[in-house]
Each structure stands twice: as structure tokens, then as C-alpha cells.
Amino acid sequence: MTRTPSMEDYLEQIFTLIKEKGYARVADIAEALEVHPSSVTKMIQKLDKSEYLKYEKYRGFVLTPKGKKLGKRLVDRHAILEEFLRLIGVPEGDVVADVEGMEHHVGPETLSALSDLVQFLKEDPKRLAAFREFRARNEEERGEGGAEGGAGAETDVDDGPGAGRPEADDGIGAASGSAGAQAGADQRGGVGAGERANA
Ligand code: ZN
């Protein structure tokens, strides 16, 4: 994380750690958010003051019901955005960084709409396949069009669904029909579900 983590980032991280390990230690939070432990301690005090968590001797930090509720919402929001970006074919390297940037600016209405869009695309593999095909065509046109497209654009075209390459990391071969798209959609569903399970 290149920017300074916000209170939401901390709460999200603490919620995830507690869910995964049963506890959240300052050192683990500091490592996950790439900050100094003293910053974590400071934020813990803030979160304690706002009654999102309670410090307990020997057990570390325990989230209050209020903290759990918000923590879960933050983790779910992250998962939805991540799934959305993957689904529409954003390169993996951009997904994490972009979600970190987007998540704090997305309001409940936008999130709800995106969540439905994700569901809509996954519900019928043909929908996703159609979009991927459409996008691949656009990418191809952009790639052929300007020399200024550069390496990035070319890479995108290569990774595009239309390429029909078996090694395409998204697993969604739009051109190959519904079977491939289904597999891709299922895979994505798995990722999302896993994240939610961790939440
Ligand atoms: Zn996040």
C-alpha cells in the first residue's frame, strides 16, 4: 500500500486477521498494511475510542459488534470490487491496487449496482462472453489504430478473450463458447466466495 492506510483499511485488516487466525496482533497488522507498529498502536487507540474494538490483555484486540459489522461490510465491499474488476478483465496486476484506491470512494448505491452487475454477468456465461468478445474487439482496434498504444495496450490484446490462448490467465475464452466462460465464471465465483468465507 503506497498511500497512508485509513481507519477503514485498519478495520478491514483486523477483521480479516481475526477471522483467519482468531486474533490480530500489532505486528501482523503492521506487516499487512506496510506501516510502522507505532502507527498501528495509534490507530488501535482510535478504534478503541470509537468503540470498534476493545483491547484485551493476552488476547490482543477484540472487535465489538459495531466493529464486526463495519469490518464485514468493508471486507465484502473489497471482495465485490475485486471480483468486478477481475470479471471485466482488468489485468491481475492492476486489480489489487485499483481496489485499494476505489473501495473508500464507493458508496452503497454504487456498490449495490456493481454487485448486481457481477451477479448478472455470472448468472449467464453468455453475457460475460459477449462482453469479453466486445472488449477484445475494441482492444484489437485500439492496438492496430495508434502507435501510441504502446506495450500496455498490446499486452491487453494478447490477454484478451478473443485470442483463444489456453494460457490466458483469465480462463475465459469468449470465443470458445459457453463452456470456457462457465469455467471462468465459476473460478471467479470461487475466488469471491473464498474471500467472503475469510471474511
Ligand atoms: Zn480493501
List the helices and strands and how they pair.
Elements: H1 7-21, H2 26-33, H3 37-49, E1 53-56, E2 60-63, H4 65-87, H5 92-102, H6 108-123, H7 125-145, H8 150-159, H9 178-198
Antiparallel strand pairs: 1-2
Helix pairs in contact: 1-2, 1-4, 2-3, 4-5, 4-6, 4-9, 6-7, 7-8, 7-9
Zinc ion binds next to loops.
Question: In terms of structural class, how would the helical and strand content be classed?
Answer: mainly alpha
Q: What is bound: which ligands?
A: zinc ion
Which shape, going by the Cα principal axes? elongated
| SSE string | HHHEEHHHHHH
The number of helical elements comes to 9
First-last Cα distance: 20 Å
Q: Please give the order of strands in the largest beta sheet.
A: 1-2
Radius of gyration: 20 Å
Low-confidence stretches: 146-199
Let me know the average pLDDT: 78
Helix content range of the residues, please?
55-70%
Strand content: under 5%
Strand tally is 2
Largest sheet: number of strands, sense, barrel closure = 2 strands, antiparallel
Walkthrough of the structure:
With 199 residues, the protein is mostly helical. Helices cover 69% and strands 4% of the residues. The chain has nine helices and two strands. The chain has a two-stranded antiparallel ribbon with strand order 1-2. α1 (7-21) crosses α4 (65-87) and α4 packs across α5 (92-102). The two termini are 20 Å apart. It binds zinc ion. The site of zinc ion has 4 residues, from loops.
